[in-house]
Amino acid sequence: MRGTVRKITLPRRLVDDLMHASIRVPFVSLTRSINIRSLLEARSQAAQCPGWAAIFVKAFALVAKEQPILRTLYVKWPLPAFYELPRSVAMVAIARIEDGEDCVLPQKVASPDEMSLVQVDALIRHAKDAPIDDVPAFRKILRTTRLPLPLRRLFWAVGLNFGRQRANYFGSFGVTSVAAYGAGELHAMSPGPYVLSYGVEKPDQTIDVVLRWDHRVTDAAPMAKALNRLEQVLNNEISTELRANRQQTEPKQVRAVAT
Hints:
The protein is an alpha/beta fold.
């Protein structure tokens, strides 16, 4: 049967490189339904309602600040070892349409736990709407993706296997979701060490969260505890920030004085 030969576009070449880097990572996943009642109430009243991606990016980074294992990488060079990062770096999967083709590109958010939700959300929205050349993380990864295959493999190997470079190129955790297109669990592939995905909010005020991690770094029990803590952070620290944002933006009432 005769078909049509199509060129592999740059974004699809990036996905090919990503899958090649992920294929030997021994991922394990844990799915849990998280109660977000307090968060939903705070979010519905927020003056500036941040997207779910920004909320989960900051919440996971806050948990990682307390739990160093969530900032720990497995690296191979010069010898296999664990490398603990001083802070978190998120890589957020951004769905875009370029030249009529659906594609996904990674936006870097460094130290999201030290940023406001508004700032995190602004970075993500900028990556969603701005031209590709105006997003530094996109320019950096696509510049490497344009290289010939042997050089791309070399750059990826260096970026993945030296601890000091790993977070600069690939972050310490990833966040992705297809919730904007309907319900469903997403078990994404990644070089690791952590990938968090989330579903749609349900009528019973819960949301399904999938956490995938590199089993060489840690086991299921610490990850179950991390999800428990994530639920607490969403309903406490994140909800508190949303309420505080509302109070700061509400105009002060002027009381009339009778004469």
